């Protein structure tokens, strides 16, 4: 896991906000300096009227612009959705540990909005000319975000791509693609199966955990999980020690 330790709080401007799926949005934020972000890291957004910032995985960076994907789920995301081009926005970051990129054949897996950090990772792997395949799952064709390159799409209802969860095709995809490392993001129930499958196939797995975060810097301990280190089970804060962990070190519930 890698942490750039580049942590800043800054006020920037919204350069673009658009609906990219039935319930998903992309917002691009223009900063006044070049950004250095590792796929898997996140930023925290201040939402007017709310005490706690809202964390979002970084989806893209382009010189001085940073992009995040989000679903409208509560007051924080409703506030972000209400922003317009040119509005000011207060963000902090990047925070956390990103994916440890290996020069190995890579299988990328994103479930739902978990597509964000692995799509960002895919763009980096393409730049590095590292062979990769991205498989992602959604509820239906209306939830598939536009303008994102996904090699294999699964939908629960079969309205686009393969029918069912990405987990239904995990073993088959591994046998056909023969990856040397797996990177994934999504709900814990999905990551748990991916981590166990990776162990079965003796493939290193890195998982970006989705967790409700309060402070975002490891102080409040509201996003603690158990991991194994040196034969012992210890606490780890997803926001500070993660959000990326090795799949076989997480104590899955």
Structure write-up:
It is a single chain. The protein has 5 helices and 15 strands. It has 253 residues and is α/β, with parallel strands linked by helices. The strands form 3 sheets. The protein has a 7-stranded mixed sheet with strand order 10-9-8-7-11-12-15, sandwiched between helices. Residues 1-7 have low confidence and may be disordered.
Give me the strand/helix succession.
EEEEEHEEHEEEHEHEEEHE
How far is the first residue's CA from the last residue's CA?
22 Å
The biggest beta sheet, please?
7 strands, mixed
Q: Any idea what the radius of gyration is? A: 17 Å
List how many beta strands DSSP finds: 15
Q: Mean pLDDT, nearest integer?
A: 91
Low-confidence stretches: 1-7
- Helix % is 10-25%
Look at the helices and sheets and give the structural class: alpha/beta
Compute the number of helices: 5
Concise synopsis of the structure shown:
The chain is α/β, with parallel strands linked by helices and 253 residues long. Helices cover 18% and strands 38% of the residues.
Secondary structure blueprint with pairings:
Elements (H helix, E strand, L loop, with lengths): L7 E14 L2 E7 L11 E4 L8 E9 L2 E7 L3 H8 L5 E8 L10 E6 L3 H13 L4 E7 L13 E4 L6 E2 L6 H8 L3 E6 L1 H13 L3 E6 L14 E6 L2 E6 H4 L2 E3 L7
Parallel strand pairs: 7-8, 7-11, 8-9, 9-10, 11-12
Antiparallel strand pairs: 1-2, 1-6, 2-5, 3-4, 3-6, 4-5, 12-15, 13-14
